[in-house]
Amino acid sequence: MGMLNIPAKEFLETWAAFENARRIAGEQRGTIATAAQRDYVVAMLCKLNGHCNYMGLTTSAALSKKLLSWLSDQANHRTSTPGGGYTMPKEPPLPDFESVYKYLQDIGEQIDREMHPIRFPVAPLQKSQFLDRDKLFGEKVFTIFEESRGDIQNAGNCIALGLNNAAVFHLMCVVKRGLRKMASDLGVTSAKPNLPIDKGTWNEVIRALQDAVNAQTTRTNVAGTAKLDLCSEMLIEFRAIEHLWRNNVMHTRANYNDTEAENACHHVERFMKKLAEL
Fold first, then answer.
1. Are 177 and 147 a contacting pair, CB within 8 Å?
2. pTM for the full predicted model
3. Burial class for 150, CB neighbours closer than 10 Å (0-12, 13-18, 19+)
4. In a 3-state reduction of DSSP, which class is residue 192?
5. Do 200 and 251 fall into the same domain?
6. Are residues 263 and 131 in the same domain?
7. Ramachandran category for residue 30: left, alpha or beta (phi over 0 → left; psi -120 to 50 → alpha)
8. Same domain, 213 and 237
């Protein structure tokens, strides 16, 4: 989770602001910046420094922080007094554009060097609905299946980035937690004698759940009958998912394309929403 914390638009806006600040500083070398111009550069540097730190551009981050400190911290402008002390202005003086331009040139060149080996993964616009969605399967699934939140979001991110096999893997993790939740609801604690539910294979757990459903032969009310019927339906779905996706992805028997991964996601979404009704 938290995989893609810098949207492309945000980074591009910051970089455009940087280039604009560098252009203005270059055009006005030999003059002193106004307070508004200084504040513009400071605001831009705060965002740029954050991007540099996030991407691991350590030298660029250090350079931008140095300029930011010079522009906004009056402690950098204190002067020594004859008695061995120092005086410090109440606020940083307005900078000269010559110095600002040199700083920005150094920062820009360093960013260019450090970013050269970096590759940004791109989520196409048509897949943006899958990207960083913590409630991809809706509010109810998010609330009931708390342990599945990370895998649901990761499945969406993988689909957005074209990592289709990884997406199906995360979806199967979601379904497996749904299987355990159903076992808990039915009071089933063992997949088979001396084997806890979380240690059992899908086949063993599904068999144990089916046995538990079959054992509840007394159907005293409509609600109870409806729940057992839904449990039976869910167990058939578990079997289908096991054979369609789980066995193939866990045993590296398949490579999924974009459409297949999206179809798996939509299927699992519908399944988990229905499971949430139990």
1. yes
2. 0.72
3. middle
4. strand
5. yes
6. yes
7. left
8. yes
Judge contact between 91 and 71, C-beta under 8 A: no
- Any residues with CB less than 8 A from the CB of 275 and at least 6 apart, and which? 178, 181, 182, 234
Q: DSSP label at 241?
A: H
Domain limits at 98?
A: 8-115
Cα dihedral sign for 137, 139, 140, 146?
Answer: positive
Q: Which residues contact 276 (CB under 8 A, 6 or more apart)?
A: 140, 141, 144, 145
Give the pLDDT band of residue 2 (cuts 50, 70, 90).
very low
C-alpha count within 13 angstroms, C-beta hemisphere, residue 204: 13
- The count of structural domains within the chain is 2
Q: Which residues pair with 87 in a beta bridge?
A: 79
Query: What phi, psi does 54 have (nearest 5°)?
Result: -65, -40
Pair of tokens at residue 41: 């550069």
| Residue given tokens 């179809």 in the structure block | 263
> How confident is the model over 32-83, as pLDDT tens digits?
999 999 999 999 999 999 999 988 999 999 999 999 999 999 988 888 888 7
Residues 86 and 140 in one domain: no
pLDDT tens per residue, range 178-221:
999 999 988 999 998 989 998 999 999 999 999 988 887 665 67
CA 140 to chain CA centroid, nearest Å? 20
